[in-house]
């Protein structure tokens, strides 16, 4: 019997708003200076919630959202703010923890 594998899709495993918020928080901690990593994480959350609805709520085109949030795009900070707001998420700032 052949083993069938498929590519992991994070969006399939983000079911609740709490899971989505925790996922984004973990990605923010892990990303360092990698803005594309954060954009991709938002894309995962957006696909879990529904890209069509997100496009309606942000006033941005669905295809442009897919591109901007793919990890390959370069979304403006204004787009990131619109997306996080429409997803019901907040970005937080805290002093950086230094080893010590």
Task: Characterize the structure shown.
By secondary structure, the protein is mainly α. The protein has one domain. Helices cover 55% and strands 0% of the residues. It is built from five helices and no strands. Helix 1 packs antiparallel against helix 2. The chain starts with 16 loop residues before the first helix and ends in a 14-residue tail after the last helix. The mean pLDDT is 92.
Rounded to an integer, what's the Rg over CA atoms? Answer: 15 Å
What portion of residues is helical?
55-70%
- Shape designation: globular
How would you classify the quaternary structure? single chain
Strand content: under 5%
How many β-strands, per DSSP?
A: 0
InterPro entries: Cro/C1-type_HTH (IPR001387), HI1420 (IPR014057), Lambda_DNA-bd_dom_sf (IPR010982)
Domain HTH cro/C1-type: 51-94
Protein name: Addiction module antidote protein
Quick structural gist:
With 100 residues, this protein is an all-alpha fold. The protein contains five helices and no strands.
List keywords for this structure.
single chain, 100 residues, mainly alpha, 5 helices, 55% helix
Task: Please describe the topology of this protein.
Blueprint (H helix, E strand, L loop, with lengths): L16 H15 L3 H15 L1 H8 L3 H7 L8 H10 L14
């Amino acid at each position: 019997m052949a083993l069938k594998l498929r590519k992991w899709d994070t969006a399939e495993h983000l079911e609740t708003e709490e899971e989505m918020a925790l996922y984004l928080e973990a990605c923010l901690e892990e990303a360092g200076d990698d803005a594309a990593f954060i954009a991709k994480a938002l894309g995962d959350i957006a696909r879990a919630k529904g890209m069509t609805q997100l496009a309606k709520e942000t006033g941005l085109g669905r295809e442009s959202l897919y591109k901007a949030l793919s990890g390959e795009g370069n979304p403006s900070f204004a787009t990131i703010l619109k997306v996080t707001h429409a997803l019901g998420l907040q970005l937080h700032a805290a002093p950086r923890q230094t080893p010590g």
